[in-house]
């Protein structure tokens, strides 16, 4: 009996300490690559948002191939449907896998607390693109596998039937094209995906696109009024506002459905959606599944030409990092290196590999042909400050809420108009900027 | 009562559970055998551990966080004292969302009324009463996420609800979730649909504890169903009704699940709890969010206290 008591008491203590325990100390030993693959060993857990790739076994295939080069490393995958939410909470403990994708809402200044440095930025930036997105004090904490272009997925057939053959070069031209599509009456010209909401935050990726400036995002730290006329966010959010305001989007945005939207675009019942080039394969798959021609799916850059030329930004996808508490950092690093360089997963996604000198995917070939300027990412010097201003202002450039309100305003479901809403956003941003930068 | 007491006196000697003098341990053990004083606590240990670990410790932590500027992830945080509370109370727009709660509160009175009606009807000898009980209680058993998705289709323009209205001669597409004047009413309707069954079962349980001879006597005196309800049922289940009202008020102040799944708080359907979750997880202001949660807790306690003062609890004697 007494022993039972001790066991119960011990269990209670475990529960209690597990709940109130803080995070322990951090070691900052680097996750460097090993020279000899045979000597690397250990079990590693890879956290991933691609639950679909776990289901269809393609991740397992990569792991099998990996184990041919690294026979002593055992890779296990853990898929998380609500990746952002769950991983961020798990990061309060030490148990968040060995290899993980850096959640978007973790601020760059906190990277050294949670991830092992992968190497010097001077060194790694020679091999990989977008390392500045994760560089803190000259150390790189995460590397993206691939990048995707920002822009609009559209159904070529729908646009052709409406008599549009050229990519629009201004936001006004875009609105006119959508009107032509609406006049045909076959398709919803634009679909916001308001209910699922995350597609709305993709608009933010276009900052720097309208002005064709890699430093466009960085400028936000010193711009007091990012929604003033002539600013990128004015062009971006103004386009969304006008699209909805001119009734060129779906009737009831509150009941949209992402999975259904793929089929609708694939079968020509939606004209366009602003997403990214990563969406092209998914739309093509939906078109094929519905018995339509997958070649109808096209991709165009944001409709604002700077100096006569359209422009797109290739944004990095999730960045791979090594948990600072990992027991098998060498093995974890080996997986990242192999996955980025040898697996061919970036090509399979029709994306731009982060490894320098890789070829462009097929979906971006028309961009080259049309002379669209491709910018490799937004500059990230002021990323930490911008994130602070953004969170302080409670606007949330990286979350969909403020654009949902923009859509509500545009369709008359919320009071005000574009100017009053932009003025409100400007006011919030300026106030927060004052607190942050002093 | 007295009969019962007499019975007891006539029965065998009191059970050995009565506290024997604990001065002699050996004797105590022999007489009480396995009746240690901590036996009930042993049974309670697991639920109490869970309660403490998952309710009280987090609440204590929440009070702690509300005095810091913790961002929800970094290992360190600064103590800022009452700053979060100051910020909260100097930003009246943060409390505007309680207007949304008003809609849910109104709906919850509809819900209690409907639950009372069904409970009363089903407490009489209605045909298929068990089937109806099952049908009405079923929504409560369903997962909230599933309900959210079902009702998304239900509320789509040209969806189930519109087709249904169409069949009754009301034509036209309504934006049940898209119209800012309708969205909260639609969502509150879902909430009524979901929780009415629970209220009904609570009422039904209470109604069934009313002795049958009361109805019999009442009907001999010529009381109709409404008079039976008014003078027998309603007074007898008063404690349960007042409990339901308390739950309804605190529930409508803290609505979360249904609007969060169905609209994510968009289109003016944001509630106080959704706003708090956004502050904590979208804007990294866990300190401020914890302060909001503390304020909500205080508010609910206050409302409950006022209500208890206005309608004091009284024992209902059924005989």
UniProtKB/TrEMBL annotation, chain A:
Pfam families registered for this protein in UniProt: SBP_bac_1
The entry's keywords: Cell membrane, Lipoprotein, Membrane, Palmitate, Signal
Signal peptide: 1-20
InterPro entries linked: Bact_solute-bd_prot1 (IPR050490), SBP (IPR006059)
Listed SUPFAM superfamilies: Periplasmic binding protein-like II
Full protein name: Sugar ABC transporter substrate-binding protein
Organism in which the protein naturally occurs: Kitasatospora indigofera
TrEMBL record, chain B:
Subcellular location per the Swiss-Prot or TrEMBL entry: Cell membrane
TM spans (from-to): 36-59, 97-122, 134-155, 192-215, 236-256, 286-306
UniProt keyword annotations, A-Z: Cell membrane, Membrane, Transmembrane, Transmembrane helix, Transport
Keyword Ion transport part of the UniProt annotation: no
InterPro entries linked to this entry: MetI-like (IPR000515), MetI-like_sf (IPR035906)
Region annotated Disordered, chain positions: 1-27
Gene Ontology annotations of biological process type: transmembrane transport
Alphabetical list of PANTHER family matching this protein: BLR7065 PROTEIN, INTEGRAL MEMBRANE SUGAR TRANSPORT PROTEIN
Protein family membership: Belongs to the binding-protein-dependent transport system permease family.
Protein name: ABC transporter permease
UniProt source species: Kitasatospora indigofera
Upper classification of the organism: Bacteria, Bacillati, Actinomycetota, Actinomycetes, Kitasatosporales
